[in-house]
Amino acid sequence: MTGNTEAEITQAGNTPVAITPSDTVRSFLEAWALDDHVSALALVDPDIEYANVGYSFMRGKKRLAGMLSSMAKTHMGFGVKWVNITSDGQVVMTERIDELSLGRFRAQFWVCGRFEVEGGLITVWRDYFDMVDVLKGSLRGLVAIAFPRIQKPLPKPSAK
């Protein structure tokens, strides 16, 4: 099934559960934030197109899995705080605060994401952000190493 009025239907016990494109995107980013890469990648199309607009582009689930694996190997963490999420049909727009962390360092910055979901899988993912905001978030993260009260880590999503 497709469209924002028709949701993918899964079974949770004996109760049908609607899975909307917004649910798919939220589940993907929250699984990544929980370091559950298997669950995150299960929501991605094998031919996904991923772009940090203006910076990098990759195609394919294997390359995305490689990126997540590289981050895990270097102990780089990811966090997400939702500001807004909306959809129109299969297109989902997110406004969020992302956090990239390494040890005690945490850079938090604003991101706008555009996702396309088909058949319950993310086929296109584009993130847009302001590099000045990333720089400010990185500077706050550096200062917070010495003065932790300046910036608190983003809370982990609740496991589903």
Comma- or semicolon-separated keywords:
single chain; 160 residues; alpha+beta; Nuclear Transport Factor 2, Chain: A; six-stranded mixed sheet; two-stranded antiparallel sheet; 4 helices; 44% strand; disordered N terminus
Describe the structure in your own words.
With 160 residues, this protein is an alpha+beta fold. The chain has one domain: Nuclear Transport Factor 2, Chain: A. 29% of the residues lie in helices and 44% in strands. Strand 7 and strand 8 form a beta hairpin. The radius of gyration is 16 Å and the shape is globular. It starts with 7 loop residues before the first strand and ends in a 14-residue tail after the last helix. The N terminus is likely disordered.
- The end-to-end distance, rounded to whole angstroms, is 23 Å
- Broad CATH class: Alpha Beta
Principal-axis shape? globular
The appropriate CATH architecture is Roll
In short:
By secondary structure, this protein is an alpha+beta fold.
SSE order and pairing:
Layout: E1 8-12, E2 15-19, H1 21-33, H2 37-41, E3 44-52, E4 56-59, H3 61-73, E5 76-88, E6 91-102, E7 105-118, E8 121-128, H4 131-146
Parallel strand pairs: 3-8
Antiparallel strand pairs: 1-2, 3-4, 5-6, 6-7, 7-8
